[in-house]
Write a structure and sequence with these properties.
alpha+beta; seven-stranded antiparallel beta sheet; five-stranded antiparallel beta sheet; globular
Length: 975
């Protein structure tokens, strides 16, 4: 049988099924196949692969697909094997990447290769292309070629690539125009830097010559004011600066930078091959997209529009300068402005507009308002309701503290009818009950827009600031023995960790909180409350934190949504303790009620993390506050629009140059690269060079996709004696543990590798005989390793720092620095590669089996003549007790220092056996007022029992909370 050749890359496979799997595994091949099958293609010969009666030769037959004049990606017409064209029009589940039993699941339990259902796209029902077009950068390139720009100088109008880099820096540095002018007129710049621009006027003339996007327009609104002093006009004029949203959408969709990040049709991914357990992540995986797609013409491309608004202060010194005056004048002004801003979306949403997409194909796009990101006051403003009502449902204000499984949602048609009647002077009986305002809403004519459903969860204001900081922390502190003093004492005493902020003075004196500080408090607050408050208070706090962490998932399954629902129920089961203790009278709190809408919103729009108000607030800094600071404070709004136009032009031109360098195929930068940069910077601070090594394949069930680690090429302490190791690093049993490690390793190697030279074993024993207190070793401060991928909390691999740094005393102006000895999860001893994840009794093994907690006291390397014992650096670790004690109150494991013969049990292991860092929270007990000698530096030595923190990072939460809870439930069901 002739080989089967891939029509895109030319690879050959022996069978049609093998070719099909190859194309499904490679995105470029799969997209090229889909495009060829969808755009103007005609099958000259079609062979069905469904009839089992056909001969193998017939099933393997190929069909020629002749595309239109512009073949996909510039290729000639291809030949497609018939099995790949046999795509049924009905819904079915197919696998995006061929499942491999050896791949299995990620460390967090998510499938590495989820099953994909993209029938909307492959069948042409959505995202269908109508032809070929030129992308944004292709148009820019052609225009520049016509202007005479040479290929070897694409950075024109700047004289060189270095000058363009300087121009970028000046535009993104936050310097004002006067500061840029002073910089360019410095003697050193004028005399030594041959720049093509000598002052700010010449510089901005070059910036303004760069290709521009949609322009800004100013529209004036007049508002009649009731109270004016004598002689003043009763009309106040407001400016609305806007850009055409349809033109903005055109540019975004046509930008090749986003080519691999766009979806043109709904997609569903599943944990199972039957399509019964969906994975909800991005918006295209939610039910909303598919629901609205059915309302559009066949082949239409739905473009979800996400809106966000928030009043922001432009200057700490000018309190009158606000972006728009929502609360100052009238709610109607806001709706009038929004109506004017979104007016182009009405016609475009109904009839669609032809758009050239990033992949070079033309599609008919329908921009539809899908989500509105705002905090509670803004949501009520958008929904035209009073702030003491829910903007999404019709729950009564005095019933918001009662959990309701199926709240009555606001119906946009009924709400609009009542508002229109009220505007005509006829307020019906349901108007006041629904808490509506007499405002003509901007969303009345937007096609397929249910504004109440569009209001998405707000993790920052509703959960972090509202439910947690403003309410839970306040209530729990009031219920604790010792109140604020005890809370501050425990925060001050908390052990250190690189991913944890240390509140040196506690939290009661912090006057201004940021979103990051709320999250840092959440990491340890349950451990702070444990032991010092009523058990029901601890359970309520745990439920709130569990809800916050589950709500932050970037990808949800039915299991995580069930856990989210369970956390919400548990809080309402234990919240009455605050009434019993006299802290609260009721729970009619808007942000607390908003938690009841999270699961429905996630099912509709994907993970809530994508609609957090942290994003818009960050944009306020980038586009509003920085723009204001770059102005001269006179007619600043117009200057801000000019500043933003220039910023857009610089970013667009930089993306264009990157597109050229990448061969007309640019991609967004990877976040993992940032970690590598930070890692290199950390090493440079210590004067270290970094080398990267990869450990052998591990058979542990734990959580490693790969065992990569990075460590300095030059150790920080190259000749450290055993005496120093014992006294300053605290490795008291170093010599005994070294002898034990070398002896066992040599014995194990001799058994598994009979070819190991006898001389090597003899050298090892000779080395041990001469080790004494003055023998020196190369000692490192730290190493870093990649944490395994957990798709539900992050799409990228994060780096984990494992440190063993002794304390440094003060000297001169240099302050003293505390020691840093990381607590870690590590594999003690050799893990059996044949060990199954299920025991003989049918109960799955504990997710933390074989990984006790230890504290790293030393990172070192054996001499070069001992590399046959271990080619990797080693770690001296003091161990804690295994995970046998589970605290039902906090849901965290409890461990204690492990003892052997009245000494800390310790051993030496390769650093590749270290899985990840962890954080230990002292089990303080009821109060620890008398324990004034405890500090964050010595608490790990003074305290005799600890909780293993499940909230340090979101990946720790998956491991210590979700996976452990799932294991406990499965064990109880099996038993």
């Amino acid at each position: 049988m002739p080989p089967h050749r891939c029509f895109h890359c030319g690879a050959t496979k022996p069978t049609a099924q093998g070719l099909k799997a190859h194309i499904q595994l490679n995105n470029a091949c799969r997209r090229s196949r889909d495009s060829a099958a969808r755009i103007g293609t005609t099958a000259v010969q079609a062979v069905s692969n469904r009839a089992s009666s056909e001969s193998p030769s017939a099933a393997a037959q190929n069909i020629a697909i002749h595309s239109s004049d512009d073949a996909p990606d510039g290729h000639e017409p291809h030949t497609l094997p018939s099995p790949l064209l046999d795509l049924p029009p009905s819904k079915r589940t197919r696998v995006e990447a061929a499942p491999d039993a050896s791949e299995g699941h990620e460390a967090g339990g998510m499938p590495k290769n989820p099953f994909l259902d993209d029938h909307w796209y492959t069948s042409g029902q959505a995202g269908a292309a109508t032809g070929r077009g030129r992308t944004l950068f292709e148009v820019m390139h052609e225009e520049r070629v016509q202007e005479g720009v040479e290929a070897d100088a694409p950075w024109v109008p700047f004289a060189s690539e270095e000058e363009w880099g300087l121009a970028q820096w000046m535009m993104h540095s936050g310097l004002s125009q006067s500061e840029i002018d002073r910089y360019l007129k410095l003697d050193i710049i004028q005399n030594r830097s041959p720049l093509s621009f000598k002052d700010k006027r010449a510089f901005f003339k070059k910036i303004d010559s760069l290709p521009r996007g949609p322009g800004w327009q100013c529209e004036l609104f007049e508002l009649q004011c009731e109270e004016r002093s004598e002689g003043e006009s009763g009309v106040e004029v407001f400016e609305l600066w806007k850009r055409n949203p349809v033109e903005c959408i055109r540019e975004l969709l046509s930008n090749p930078t986003f080519k691999d990040n766009l979806r043109y049709a709904p997609e569903q991914r599943y944990e199972d091959d039957r399509g019964e357990r969906p994975v909800l992540g991005e918006m295209w995986s939610g039910a909303w997209w598919e629901r609205v797609q059915k309302l559009l013409p066949k082949g239409a491309t739905l473009v979800p529009v996400i809106l966000a608004s928030d009043k922001t202060q432009l200057s700490n010194f000018s309190g009158d300068k606000s972006v728009w005056p929502r609360a100052v004048l009238a709610y109607q002004l806001f709706h009038n402005c929004m109506r004017s801003l979104l007016e182009p979306l009405v016609e475009a949403g109904r009839k669609g507009v032809e758009v050239v997409c990033a992949d070079g194909y033309v599609r008919r796009a329908h921009p539809i308002v899908a989500a509105y990101v705002a905090d509670h006051p803004e949501q009520c403003l958008v929904a035209c309701c009073q702030e003491n009502h829910c903007p999404k449902c019709l729950v009564q204000p005095n019933k918001r503290g009662v959990p309701v499984d199926l709240p009555v949602m606001r119906d946009p048609e009924k709400m609009l009818a009542m508002i229109c009647s009220a505007l005509e002077g006829n307020k019906g009986p349901g108007f006041a009950e629904a808490g509506l305002r007499s405002i003509h809403p901007f969303w009345a004519n937007l096609p397929h827009c249910d504004i109440f459903t569009c209001l998405t969860p707000d993790l920052l204001h509703q959960l972090h600031k509202g439910v947690f900081k403003d309410h839970t922390v306040k209530w729990a502190t009031a219920c604790m023995d010792g109140k604020e003093d005890e809370v501050d004492r425990r925060f001050r005493t908390m052990p250190l960790h690189p991913d944890l902020r240390h509140f040196k003075k506690g939290i009661s004196l912090v006057s201004q909180w940021t979103g990051n500080e709320y999250k840092q408090m959440e990491k340890v607050f349950l451990g702070v409350v444990a032991g010092a408050a009523d058990p029901d208070v601890v359970k309520a706090v745990r439920a709130v934190l569990d809800f916050v962490y589950y709500a932050h998932y970037e990808a949800h399954t039915e299991d995580s949504l069930s856990c989210l629902q369970d956390a919400w129920i548990r809080f309402h089961s234990h919240k009455h303790v605050f009434v019993r203790l006299g802290v609260r009278d009721d729970f009619n709190i808007p942000k607390l009620h908003s938690m009841s809408h999270y699961i429905d919103s996630i099912r509709l729009f994907g993970s809530a993390d994508g609609y957090n108000t942290e994003g818009p607030e960050r944009l306020h800094i980038d586009f509003a506050k920085l723009g204001y600071c770059a102005s001269n404070r006179k007619q600043y709004i117009q200057q801000m629009t000019t500043w933003m136009e220039r910023q857009d032009a610089v970013r667009r031109f930089d993306q264009y140059l990157q597109w050229l360098k990448a061969g007309h195929n640019s991609q967004l930068p990877s976040r993992s690269g940032d970690n590598d940069t930070e890692e290199a910077e950390d090493a440079e601070k210590d004067g270290e060079e970094v080398e990267q090594e990869t450990a052998p394949e591990s058979h542990a069930r734990a959580d490693v996709d790969s065992e990569e680690y990075t460590i300095s090429k030059r150790p920080a302490f190259p000749s450290t004696s055993v005496k120093t190791i014992t006294e300053e690093f605290g490795a008291l049993d170093f010599i005994r543990c070294l002898e034990d490690f070398v002896t066992k390793t040599v014995a194990s190697s001799s058994a598994s590798r009979p070819s190991l030279p006898i001389q090597a074993a003899s050298n090892a024993h000779s080395f041990l005989r001469v080790v004494n207190m003055y023998t020196t070793f190369s000692v490192y401060k730290q190493f870093k390793k990649r944490l395994p991928r957990m798709s539900q909390v992050s799409k990228t691999l994060a780096m984990d720092s494992i440190r063993a740094i002794p304390a440094k005393s003060a000297g001169g102006l240099r302050p003293a620095t505390p020691s840093q000895f990381s607590t870690v999860l590590a594999r003690e001893g050799v893990v059996d590669s044949t060990q199954d994840s299920e025991r003989e009794d049918g109960i799955s093994s504990h997710p933390l089996d074989g990984m006790p907690v230890g504290q790293v006291r030393l990172l070192f390397r054996l001499p070069s003549n001992m590399e046959h014992v271990s080619k990797h650096p080693l770690a001296y670790i003091e161990w804690y007790t295994p995970f046998h004690r589970y605290d039902d109150l906090t849901g965290m494991f409890s461990v204690a220092p492990s003892q052997r013969l009245h000494r800390r049990r310790a051993s030496i292991i390769p650093i590749t056996s270290i899985v990840r860092t962890c954080h230990l929270i002292p089990a303080w007990g009821r109060v620890h007022v008398a324990r004034t000698d405890w500090t964050s530096e010595n608490v790990l030595q003074r305290c005799d029992r600890f909780y293993v923190n499940a909230y340090l990072r979101h990946s720790d939460f998956v491991l210590f909370r979700q996976l452990v809870d799932n294991w406990r439930r499965s064990r109880s069901i099996t038993v």
